[in-house]
Amino acid sequence: MEAVYLLFSIVYNSLISSILSLLLLFRSVLPASSAVSSSPPLNEEEEVALYEGSVWHERRRPVHHSFRYSVRYALINLDRAKPNTLLTHFSADQARHITATTGPVFFLTIPSSVGYEQNPLSVYYCYDVEGSIQRLKKCIAEVTNTPWGERVSFVFNPDSDFVPKPLHVSPFMDMLGNWKMKVTAPGEHLFLAISVEHPELGDYFTATLTAKRVSSTSSVTIFFWLMPQKVAVWIYWQALKLWWKNVSFIQHPRYFNPKYREEASMRDRKLQCCQALGQGEDSCAQLESSYSACLDSTTSRDRWCVWRDAQWPWS
């Protein structure tokens, strides 16, 4: 049944995008088209900055598989964004409340294009104000899986953080790995890295985003035309290659382990205790008394993390 849903989703979105692309082409020849010109560095008076760069993936086990593709992102100043611009995402005030920060909030994402949205990862950069200095304090990751459209949002420390995998991202990966997250504060350049540490496969997967701030005389709509669709094509094409290399296909955990989200939350508390005790995840459980005390203490608290269920027609 999921194969039928997938085929329907591809055909439906292709049809809608084609129709809306024709309308966009018609509107683009009219003189009313607005343009965006951006130049570094980003400041609090600008609403959006445009970035162009590449995404790189490398899987080292059980087979080697790597690829790179070009991508365009928008960095949106949520304090200056127009109301109702990002209906399914957090506002600046919501992000500040979630992260307990006091400064500006910027949102890195691929805007939807001609009726379609595809964002494997979006990031909120939340700053704190310390006197006259603004410092990047916390980030919120917003991870969406393909093709289900489920989403998980969670807080992480930008310098470096470990997060037990909370969402079925890629049907060629199980749920046992920890995500190691690291980002730099966006400026003229931005960088983001995620690696996966697995109890059996070790440090077997890495993904990075590197991008540079660019200027454009095109409208934002034209700049991001078909960008989400291109990302979706790359995702499905690489999945086909992994299947061809005989990498095991893993069913969605909702079919055989409905409590996978609760288990991910518990694993996260255990991981935070291990880090507090200065031990690796595999060895810290041997410190029985300290480990149990940490789990029971107020210092072991749940990471802020919320899920959005699968979207139609997968729901």
Describe the structure in brief:
28% of the residues lie in helices and 30% in strands. The protein has 7 helices and 11 strands.
Descriptive notes:
The chain has 315 residues and is of the alpha+beta class. The chain has one domain. It is 28% helix and 30% strand. The chain contains 7 helices and 11 strands. The chain has helices spanning 2-28, 92-99, 220-223, 227-244, 260-276, 281-284, 288-296; strands at 48-59, 65-77, 105-109, 121-130, 133-144, 151-156, 161-164, 178-183, 189-198, 202-214, 305-308. An 11-stranded antiparallel sheet has the order 7-8-9-10-1-2-3-4-5-6-11. The two termini are 12 Å apart. Residues 32-42 have low confidence and may be disordered. InterPro entries: DUF1365. This is DUF1365 domain-containing protein. It comes from Protea cynaroides.
Instruction: Give the termini separation.
Output: 12 Å
Structural class, by secondary structure, is alpha+beta
Categorize the overall geometry. Answer: globular
Number of helices: 7
The low-confidence runs, each spanning 5 or more residues with pLDDT under 50, are 32-42
Give me the side-by-side strand order of the main sheet: 7-8-9-10-1-2-3-4-5-6-11
Topology, number of strands = 11
Q: What are the secondary-structure elements, in order, as H or E?
A: HEEHEEEEEEEEHHHHHE
Tally the structural domains. 1
Q: In what range is the share of β-strand residues?
A: 25-35%
Rg result: 21 Å
Query: How can the largest sheet be summarized?
Result: 11 strands, antiparallel
Task: Assign a percent range to the helix content.
Answer: 25-40%
- Name the average pLDDT: 86
Organism: Protea cynaroides
Protein name: DUF1365 domain-containing protein
Pfam families: DUF1365
